[in-house]
Amino acid sequence: MIDTIISYGHKLPGIHSEIFLAQVGGATNRIANDATAYPHRDIQFVMNVHTRWLEANDDAMCVDWARDFYRATKPFATGGAYMNFISEGDDSVESAYGDNALKLAAVKQKYDPDNILRTNLNITPS
C-alpha cells in the first residue's frame, strides 16, 4: 500500500491534487460499531484523494489518474467508506454505513418520509 501511495504521489496530475492520509483510532475505536451512524470503528487509517484541476482540457487526465489510483489501492481497503470522502456516483451509501444503513433508513422514514433532505448522498426512507 505504501509503495502504491508513493508511486501515485509522484504522478499527481496537478498542483491542486493531493493524497490525504489520517490516523484514526483511540476514542473512535472504543465506540461500538452500531452506536452511531459511522460503523468503521476497527480501522487505524483513512485515505482521501483530492483530485482538483482548473482547466477543462485536464478533465480526462485527472479523472483517469484518480480512477487508476482507486483501483490500485482498493485491494488494501476494508471495503468501507467515510461518508464525507465519497464522490457522488462513485460509491454507495451502504459502504459508508454498513449494517447501520437499515437503521438510518428507518430514522429517515420517521423524520423525513418525503425525502426532502435528499441533496447529498442520500439515505432513502425505508
What's the total count of β strands?
2
**In percent terms, what proportion of residues is strand?**
5-15%
| Spans of at least 5 consecutive residues with low confidence | none
**What gross morphology would you assign?**
flat
Roughly how much helix do the residues carry, as a percent range? 25-40%
Q: H/E element string? A: HEEHHH
Look at the helices and sheets and give the structural class. Answer: alpha+beta
Please give the alpha-carbon distance between the first and last residues: 38 Å
Q: What is the gyration radius calculated from CA atoms?
A: 17 Å
Largest sheet: 2 strands, antiparallel
**Major β-sheet strand ordering:** 1-2
- Average pLDDT figure: 89
Number of domains: 2
Structure overview:
The relative contact order is 0.16. The protein is built from four helices and two strands. It has helices at 2-9, 59-73, 93-97, 100-111, and strands spanning 18-23, 45-50. It folds into two domains: 2-78, no CATH class; 92-126. 32% of the residues lie in helices and 10% in strands. The protein is flat. The model has no long low-confidence stretch (mean pLDDT 89). The protein has a two-stranded antiparallel ribbon. The protein has 126 residues and is an alpha+beta fold. It starts with a helix and ends in a 15-residue tail after the last helix.
